[in-house]
Amino acid sequence: MAGFSWYLSEGFQVIIEKSKEDKCSLNDVQLRFLCPDDLEEVRALCRDWFPIEYPQSWYEDITSSERFFALAAVYKTQIIGLIVAEIKPYLKLNAEDRGILSRWFASKDTLVAYILSLGVVRSHRRSGVATMLLDVLIKHLAGPVVQLPHEHRVKAIFLHVLTTNNEAIHFYEKRRFRLHSFLPYYYSIKGRCKDGFTYVYYVNGGHAPWGIYDYVKYVARAAWSGGGLYPWIWGKLRTALTIAWHR
C-alpha cells in the first residue's frame, strides 16, 4: 500500500448538502488503513450493514493483511465508512468470474481487485463518503503514480451485489460500473438462496471479452489512425509476406 500516508484528507474539498441530522463535511473526514485495533469496531459495523455473517478470520485478515486494501473513513475518532478490496491474480478467480476480462489478459501477471465490502454509517449516507472511498481505491490502482506492488497490473475492479439491492446497484452504475453477469442462487442468507449480479469497472486498459462488433471497431480505428484503410492493409500484408519469405 505504498504511496499513502496513514491519514488522507487532502483533495476532497466537497461540502455536503444540509440535513436535519448532524452529518459531517468531507473536509473533516480522515482516511486511514485498518489496523488490528479496529477489529471489534469493524465487526459491529459490518453486522449492522450487511446480511452476511463473516467469520472471525475474515476480520483478522482485513485488519492486518497487506493482501487487502482496507480503508476507513474516520470522523471524530469514529469509523463512519470503510471499503475492503482484495487484490488477487486473475487466474485464481472462481469460474463464474473468469469471464470479466478478455482472454488477452489471461496471464500470471494480470491482477484484479474484488470489492468485498463498502459501507457507510446510516447517519452519514448520501454525503459523499462512499464515493470518496471508492475514488481512492480506483486512484490507488489506476492513478498516474505507479503503486507497488501492483504497478498498474490490475485490469478490473469487480464486485457482487444482491439483485434486490437497488440502492447499491444505482450507486455503482452511476460510477460507471458495468453489469457483467447474472448469478442465480449466488448468496445464501439465513438459509435462503438469493440471486446476485456481477459489476465490473475496467482500469489500465482492461476490457471485457470482445464480440464481432468490437473487433470490427478495433480494425477500423487502427486503419484510420494509420492514414486510411488501404495503407493499413498494405502494411499488414507486407509484414506477413516478409515473415513468410524469411521462413
TrEMBL record:
Enzyme class: transferase
SUPFAM superfamilies: Acyl-CoA N-acyltransferases (Nat)
GO molecular function (one): protein N-terminal-methionine acetyltransferase activity
GO cellular component terms attached to this protein's record: Golgi membrane
UniProt key word Ribonucleoprotein: no
Reaction(s) catalysed (UniProt annotation): N-terminal L-methionyl-[transmembrane protein] + acetyl-CoA = N-terminal N(alpha)-acetyl-L-methionyl-[transmembrane protein] + CoA + H(+); L-lysyl-[protein] + acetyl-CoA = N(6)-acetyl-L-lysyl-[protein] + CoA + H(+)
Keyword list, A-Z: Acyltransferase, Chromatin regulator, Chromosome partition, Transferase
Family matches, as InterPro entries: Acyl_CoA_acyltransferase (IPR016181), GNAT_dom (IPR000182), NAA60-like (IPR045141)
CDD domains given in the database record: NAT_SF
PROSITE patterns attached to this UniProt entry: GNAT
Domain (N-acetyltransferase) ranges: 29-215
BP GO terms, sorted: chromosome segregation
Entry-linked Gene3D superfamilies: 3.40.630.30
Pfam families documented for this protein: Acetyltransf_1 (PF00583)
Keyword Acyltransferase on entry: yes
Enzyme Commission number(s) of this protein: 2.3.1.259, 2.3.1.48
Family: Belongs to the acetyltransferase family. NAA60 subfamily.
Protein name: N-alpha-acetyltransferase 60
Species the sequence originates in: Papilio machaon
Source organism phylogeny: Eukaryota, Metazoa, Ecdysozoa, Arthropoda, Hexapoda
